[in-house]
Amino acid sequence: MPKKMINNIELNYELDGDGEEVLVLLNGIMMSTVSWTAHVPYFTANNLRVLRVDFRDQGLSGRAKEPYTIEQHVEDLVGLINYLQLGPVHLHGISYGGQVALLFALNYPKMVRSLIIANTVPRLTNYLRGIGEAWDEAAKLKAGRNFFRMIAPSIYSNLFFESNLEFLKEREEMLANLLDDGWFDAYLRLSSSNSDFDLLDRLSEISAPTIFMAADRDAVTPIEEMRAMRDRINNSKFVLIPDSGHVSCYEKMDEYNLIILGFIALLHAS
Question: What's the rounded Cα separation, in Å, for the pair 126 and 128?
């Protein structure tokens, strides 16, 4: 797996495909480049190059030695895109990655071909702070099995729980063996990086073609917050994925990928 030292930290990334246009996939807070493995063939088969990257404190990227803000990920991503000599990109982020994508589009508009935001909020409401605090308390236990059991009901929909219990048990077992103290320390740094995040009043500055992907059973991301973002960006689009929770990229992967590909195709046709 390739790595590059950017802003004094080693970033892990994967670049697949040979298309002329680049789709960047930005992780949710608990994800890594591996999380997108099954998605990549959908996009490379449609003439897209796909860039995946682990933020600092994620996956195989380096661990930070001190606290930072979410803006740091934007600067890290700029450095990596410039190093790889990629042109304006289609920027996609889910949840925490969506927040990074929004901030990137505001700070570096010329580097963004389009903006694709899934299961993301533009600000930390009292409700979301409460969820984040609960997740942090679970992380402080530093026990993978307990962590998964405490957060899973809020990120997966009730429908997914009912029909995929064996999968969830397998994931619980995997995390019980995989997550160590270093991972939990890194997670807590990531979690604290967006404590003052609020872009709602700046969103009208975004000029890139934008689509918002919400899920109707997402307990973490209220649909109203995503519609509020749509209303502030001229000509932006909104799609509601039915019967899915916060991790719509897993629960409804086919629909999720088709929305992204359809949006990019629409840009080509316009």
Answer: 6
The CA dihedral of 49, 24, 234, 246, to the nearest 10 degrees, is 120
Q: Strands 210-215, 48-53: parallel, antiparallel or unpaired by DSSP?
A: unpaired
Alpha carbon distance 255, 71 (integer Å): 30
Full 3-state SS string of the chain: CCEEEECCEEEEEEEECCCCEEEEEECCCCCCHHHHCCCHHHHHCCCEEEEEECCCCCCCCCCCCCCCCCHHHHHHHHHHHHHCCCCCEEEEEECHHHHHHHHHHHHCHHHEEEEEEECCCCECCHHHHHHHHHHHHHHHCCCHHHHHHHHHHHHCCHHHHHHCHHHHHHHHHHHHHHCCHHHHHHHHHHHHCCCCCECHHHHHHCCCCEEEEEECCCCCCCHHHHHHHHHHCCCCEEEEECCCCCCHHHHCHHHHHHHHHHHHHHHHHC
Please say if the pLDDT value at position 269 is more than 90: no
pLDDT at 268: 87
Convert the pLDDT of each residue in 97-107 to its tens digit.
Answer: 999 999 999 99
Q: Please report which confidence band the pLDDT of residue 87 belongs to, taking 50, 70 and 90 as the band edges.
A: confident
Domain boundaries, the chain: 3-123+196-269
Kindly state which CATH superfamily the domain 3-123+196-269 is placed in. Alpha/Beta hydrolase fold, catalytic domain (3.40.50.1820)
Report the distance separating Cα 232 and Cα 266, nearest Å: 21
Residue 147 confidence class, pLDDT cut points 50, 70, 90: very high
